[in-house]
Amino acid sequence: MKEKIRFLLYPESIAVIGASTNPGKWGFIILDNILAGGYRGKVYPVNPNTDSIFGMKCYRRIQDIPDGIHLAVITIPREKVFDALKDCAEKGVKSIMVISSGFSESGKEYVELENKMADFGREKGIPIAGPNGQGIFNAFINLSATMSYFHIKPARVSLVSQSGNMGNTMIKWAERYGMGFGKFISSGNEAMLKTEDYYEYFEDDPDTDVVLSYVEGIDDGRRFFEKLKSLSLKKPVIILKGAKTAEGKRAAESHTGAIAGTYEVFKSAVKQAGGILAENPEEMGDLAFGFLYQSLPKGKRVGAISAGGGWAVLLSDALSQEGLELAKFSPSLMEELNKILPYYWSRNNPVDLVAEKREGIYQRVAELVISEPSVDILMTLGIGYGYSGVFKMEASKLIDPEVREHIKNIVRERGIDEALYLLELKERIKKPIIAASDSMFAEDFYRNETIKILIENGIFVYPTPERAARVAAKMYSYAEYIRKRKG
Amino acid sequence: MKTIALSEYRSKELLRNLGIEIPEELFVKTEEECLKGAEKLGYPVVLKGTGEGIAHKTEKGLVKVKIMNENELIRAYREIVGSGEKIEGMLLQRFIPGKREFIAGIVRDPQFGPVIMFGLGGIFTEILKDVSFRIAPIEKVDAEEMISELRSAKLLDAFRGEKPVNKEKLISLLIRLSEAPFKDERIVEVDLNPIIPWENEIYIVDALVVLRDEGKN
User: Fold this and answer.
1) Contact yes or no for A256 and B117 at CB 8 A
2) Under a CB-based contact definition with an 8 Å cutoff, are residues A243 and A216 in contact?
3) Is the dihedral of CA A450, A451, A452, A454 positive or negative?
4) Who contacts A366 (Cβ-Cβ below 8 Å, separation ≥6)?
5) Are residues B190 and A225, on separate chains, in Cβ contact within 8 Å?
6) ipTM of the complex
């Protein structure tokens, strides 16, 4: 089945069964978004009542289409879905996505219908996604067979989600913060293909480096566990669990039974299998960005540069809370820092550069700190700080406009130089660089070119030291997990 | 599913047969057997009333610890007899003076099947919930991680004049326990509570095994 899932995600031809001219119907939405998304493969509308839709030839039955079909998207009412499946099998369709709803989510009496669907798919050897799924997105082939279309730069991150709108949420996050996105499959009720079947596919998919997974429930915990374990050893898997609190109280005679809540056990299973838990969509985005573009840390010692005292203190707190530590700088590093910093510098990790205005000092300090053997992770706080300050000068009543432009240019250029230097360091020295800056709180943070350059090139800037520390900590835990098992 | 909770004595017997090391103890039915047994084990001792279906023995006044001599033993014996619980006999054990108590157990999760738990034991177990779980069976690295992720992991280091807990023994106990529900499919739940470390040993002081009731008895 693993190889066949490729037809769901990389179809060269798509039939939309239930294609419609009514903008309120899924049969319209899917067709419209496939086209609006810029999909380059072949698209065939199917509807028994018409020969033409928006000037496109429409087929009465899928069997009438003269070419082979990789993916059939079914959007018709529940009662007709099974006949459509049979038509697809007769046509020799390679894969099916069932958008139609009204199955097990509507009541226990429809579970049987889903089982029938799954049996049919297995018998015919056709992978069936859904029902009650929201579609398939793949930025690598401009495929938006989903509720909305996205034009986003392809990135090697793939999401399987048991909720359709979580897919939209994550792609929107990725769009806003310049991360890029790869694939999203809405697995719906998972009648046949389960979350772990997609895990199996992503394991060998060259376009996937990071896997995201939104899970509400799993049918076969053992199978999920085994597939996750196998995938985690190759690629980080970030899991967000919904329905955490919907746990049934266990009738138990032992203390063990009384304490073992459903979510506790799920969490432990994920941890044991090497998965990374995110608490909310925002954290899922934070983690995805870090894992996607950064090297894994070899240890938990952080060397930090800050622009101001408060953030340095908050970072120290956050690091110890997350189980990381500030590196102890060697005497030789201290000596080097003493040479370039003013006599009153903090003489400590984090290195506070708040009063430092000289050109190139930031770069030299960053280079020294990240190269220090006792540092596993470089964290830089307040990056782009000066640059955001110059926006305020625009309203200044005191500064001469010419002087103002001159200052703005200097600050701007320095900010850009710092960003480019960090990006170069990240490539040259294989240690993660985690940045945080309150500049991200600005509505128009993209005006800040330092920030823009960093996040568009793989260094995310977290809005708080806590979020930065959490990402660093989870990257470290994952790296440790792999080290303990692979050596 | 119908289940049956085994007595402490039978629970331990079953676990010993599955390769879990549990200290020697004596099953006594008379005051005389009790006194002779204590002579053999050496004071101080622990005396517990035991019987099928009796859980939470402490709350029922069926556990008497740190009995120092014959007089105390006779008093303890009579108090247990007078408790009114339907006991089948009593267990006589050596008293383990360690101050630290841990718990380990097994439960079958509806999604994941057998799950092993390890954590802080004693009377506050269910309130503090300082425990960790893993899907059974586990490997050495899983056992190490489940021990180190406890909030009270420091309790395994040297503590109030007691030696550090023998981690190797603890790890091998957890691994064996995690295999138990696969060796015996009837096992639904297990509690080893408390587990008391003392000197270089790990003592399972009390145990409860809940089996699927196959209705053969």
Assistant:
1) yes
2) yes
3) positive
4) A305, A378, A380, A418, A421, A422, A425
5) no
6) 0.89
Q: Strands across the sheet with A210-215, in order?
A: A143-145, A136-138, A181-186, A154-161, A210-215, A237-241, A276-278
CB A330 within 8 Å of CB A374: yes
**CA of B160 vs chain A CAs: smallest distance (Å):** 26
Q: Is A222 on the interface with B (CB under 8 A)?
A: yes
CB B144 within 8 A of CB A271: no
Residue of A222, A255, A486 to mutate, testing the B interface (most B Cβ within 10 Å of its Cβ): A255
Selection from B170, B137, B119, B178 nearest residue A264 by Cα: B119
- Any A CB within 8 A of B71 CB: no
Q: How far apart are CA A163 and CA A18, in angstroms?
A: 22
User: Rounded to the nearest 10 degrees, what angle do helices A401-428 and A361-371 cross at?
Assistant: 20
Cis peptide before B164 (omega within 30 of 0): no
Dihedral of CA atoms B51, B54, B55, B57 in degrees, nearest 10, equals -70
Please tell me if residue A256 touches chain B, with a CB cutoff of 8 Å: yes
Residue with tokens 């676990």, as numbered in its chain? B15
**With an 8 Å Cβ cutoff, is A483 touching chain B?**
no
For residues A140 and A202, what is the distance between their CA atoms, to the nearest angstrom? 14
Strands A325-326 and A13-17: unpaired
Euclidean distance between CA atoms A28 and B184, whole angstroms: 57
Cis ω before B194 (30° cut-off from 0): yes
Q: Cβ distance B120 to B155 under 8 Å?
A: yes
- Read off the DSSP letter of residue A59: B
Q: What is the mean pLDDT of each run of 10 residues along chain A (487 residues)?
A: 94 98 96 97 97 96 97 97 98 98 89 95 97 97 96 97 94 95 97 98 98 94 98 98 69 76 92 98 98 98 93 96 97 96 91 85 97 98 81 82 89 93 96 95 87 96 97 98 92
- C-alpha B60/C-alpha B44 separation (Å) is 22
Residue found by looking up tokens 């597939």 in the block:
A227
Rg (CA), chain A: 26
Q: Do A265 and B109 touch (CB under 8 A)?
A: yes
Task: Check CB contact of A56 with chain B, cutoff 8 Å.
Answer: no
Which helix (H) or strand (E) segment holds residue A479: the answer is helix A465-486
CA distance B31 to chain A (A): 31
